Amino acid sequence: MTNHNVSKIIFVTGASSGIGEAIARRLAAEGHHVVLTGRRIERLNEVVAELVRAGHSAEAHALDVADAAAFAELVGTVIAEHGRLDVLVGNAGQMLLSRLDSLLVDEWDRMFDVNVRGLYYGIAAVLPHFRAQESGHVVTIASVGAREVSPTSAIYSATKHAAWALTEGLRQESDPSIRVTTISPGVTESELAGHITDQHAAELMVGYRAAQIPADAIARSVSFAISQPAEVDVNEIIIRPTGQR
Ligand code: NDP
């Protein structure tokens, strides 16, 4: 499955749809080896089969990012196979919007499990390896919700504020061999809003999501960040559709 023109080994969480899938497709097409992960292994296998047919280098693994032990084990497996890991793209996320008085506490827990714990479990899994190999890059897909709050977004925005803070904290703590980037998309084509169960929140999203950018717009920003010279760390990128206020 591996070709000989690979420049980086890149681990992408939530690569089975939307932004993560677009990141995996673009980075594989640019000659990197991409490890696509997510819970829906059939979809990951389909994307990988397509990439390999096109002459690219990729592999798929089932991973629930809320499972810290599984995350660490898979990172170890990838490093054992390839000898190193260059980039972790922490993209997996859920946006189960609702007002606080909806009391959908299980959904709030799930967002924290995936958007926050899933992110720091990934950082915990890669950091010892990045330090040992004296290089590495963590790219977090946060959100404009890391900077904004609106009715129904309190918990989701809280998770994305946390994602921003975690990534910025890592940047401040890391030695210069480790690079850290937070990318905050605005409204982007994906399956994200389709999982909202609260009817009021789902209705609000119809207008809010009228202007969308393709997921590859976010993938291009990841490509930009990881292709900089080693001494250049792109810290943050915010990308919105021109029509989004
Ligand atoms: P999608 O719903 O299309 O993709 C979400 C991805 O996350 C899927 O691949 C899904 O895979 C994965 N995922 C969800 N839960 C888990 C889990 N427990 N373990 C592993 N993977 C999981 O939405 P997007 O592409 O839009 O979302 C990607 C990221 O972009 C998210 O962090 C989101 O918050 C962020 N974002 C999106 C915006 C948008 O407008 N689309 C705007 C701002 C930020 P699977 O179901 O197979 O596990």
Automatic annotation (TrEMBL):
Residues 8-190 form the Ketoreductase domain. PANTHER family: DEHYDROGENASE/REDUCTASE SDR FAMILY MEMBER 11, DEHYDROGENASE_REDUCTASE SDR FAMILY MEMBER 11. Signal peptide: none annotated. Keywords: Oxidoreductase. Transmembrane segments: none annotated. The keyword Oxidoreductase applies. It comes from Arthrobacter russicus. The keyword Translocase does not apply. Pfam families: adh_short. InterPro entries: KR_dom, NAD(P)-bd_dom_sf, Sc_DH/Rdtase_CS, SDR_fam. It comes from the Bacteria. SUPFAM superfamilies: NAD(P)-binding Rossmann-fold domains (SSF51735). This is NADP-dependent 3-hydroxy acid dehydrogenase YdfG. Belongs to the short-chain dehydrogenases/reductases (SDR) family.
